[in-house]
Amino acid sequence: MRLSWRLASRLSVITLAMLIVVVIALWGLRNERASSQSGPSTTLQGTELDSTAAPDFTLTDQNGKTIELSQLHGKAVVLTFLYTHCPDVCPLIASKLHIVQRQLGKTSAQVMLVAVSIDPAGDTQASVQQFSQEHQLVNNWHYLLGTKEVLEPVWNAYSVYAQAATSKVTHSSAVYVIDKESRERVFFGEDFTTSDMVTDLQVLTKE
């Protein structure tokens, strides 16, 4: 009788342990399926926008190539507004974009960096090429030029203020991150951190 009781006790403990293992395994499988169905995390570091279609435009870059924003569909796009003779904010943004490219590694091939000039008179093809080289922005990089009549509608579409003064351009700073479906997803000011932008671009390129 004592042996049977011990055997029954041991069997009950083993059965309980096996039941716990099965429950844990099923719980893990459930969470794994839920995670795979939900897709990548959509938590973004910048100021999240409402995912409306980014206003399209067609301009010419520093190499004389015609660039249409909608043609960049399928890549994440970082869109900003610069001028080459800017003494402070614009060089800072450009330097950060170079760091972002470097930190993205192979993922940088899925990201296009685009700058729209806010100084139609001062930004020339030569000055933009020099600016690009100084900030090591060569690959997947378009600095777009044009007359004021051509550029101003783009500024307005993205709520960017630009006004030429005596020796510099007074302007607002804006960095938009546009997803692969050409939707506005994130907004950054000039004080963005490269780590935040890299995080957001990694999320968006995986969507």
Average pLDDT number: 85
**Which term fits the overall shape?**
globular
For the record, what CATH class of the largest domain applies? Alpha Beta
Largest sheet: 6 strands, mixed
% residues in beta strands: 15-25%
Using the coordinates shown, work out and report the CATH topology of the largest domain. Answer: Glutaredoxin
How large, in whole angstroms, is the Cα Rg?
26 Å
* Widest beta sheet: strand line-up: 1-10-9-4-5-6
| Share of helical residues | 40-55%
Write up this protein.
- 42% of the residues lie in helices and 20% in strands.
- With 207 residues, it is an alpha+beta fold.
- The chain has two domains: 1-39; 47-206, 3-Layer(aba) Sandwich (Glutaredoxin).
- The strands form three sheets. A six-stranded mixed sheet has the order 1-10-9-4-5-6, with helices on both faces. The chain has a two-stranded antiparallel ribbon with strand order 2-3. Strands 7-8 form a two-stranded antiparallel ribbon.
- Helix 2 crosses helix 5.
- The longest helix has 37 residues, at 2-38.
- The protein is globular.
- The N and C termini lie far apart (65 Å).
Keywords:
single chain, 207 residues, alpha+beta, Glutaredoxin, 2 domains, 6-stranded mixed β-sheet, two-stranded antiparallel sheet, 5 helices
In brief:
The chain is about 40% helix and about 20% strand.
